[in-house]
Design goal:
mainly alpha; three-stranded antiparallel sheet; Four Helix Bundle (Hemerythrin (Met), subunit A); about 260 residues
Length: about 260
Amino acid sequence: MSARSQEELALLDFAPPERLTLNDQVYNELRRLIISGQLRPGQSISIRTLAHVINVSPMPVRSALQRLVTEGALDVQPNRTFALPMLSPEDFREIADLRTILEGTAAERGCPHLGRADVALLKDINRSMFKADRDDWTGYLDLNRQFHFHIYAAAGMPRLLRFIETLWMQIGPLLNLVTNREEMRSGLEAHEAAVNAVAAGDAAGLRAAMTRDIQDAARVIIPGLQRGDFFPTTQSKRKPPPSGSPGSTEKLERPE
């Protein structure tokens, strides 16, 4: 870099670099919870109540929620609460097709950078995910996120990873409603195929396994969306499920 360039940069009013702010911490944790399906479609979130739950002031919560609105992960409600969107069958099909392209690319690009330690880690995640006595579906969803994103991060393509995360924020809440169904256990075969492909250095095979995992889930979820299985009365005209059961969209927070 030339001396002139250095002088020009020195004149710019750069703010000093900061460590991760409280705003960022709240935002990142909310993103993780949404991506891993720990919040339900239609679930409403108020600034005041969420701030009380996590013991922070309303300001970082408001900032985080507004950032999530711009990313399509949340909608703003008339009563000033925020809510997770409820997808249509067409929405979910579009997202599944986009995921197939983007996640397939990330898996294929990441495969050459995954080694024995990664195979061991992925196997451990699978064992925890698909254990026979599983009753913690929240844990299942978070492990599923860890499995996929460990593979995708190996591609070393941060922009691609960000696009994938944005799509997961839109479909993650819906997984909350269906992962306790027996059909979702079919994901074990796709995950095992993915681990075998990583172990063999088979990039095309890893892409195929990720595609299978995405499309198998879509074949379960889209018909359920078409029947209106997952949403409350206002969306499907079906009787809402009991409070606290999968599919319930009761408010956990009061308006601000």
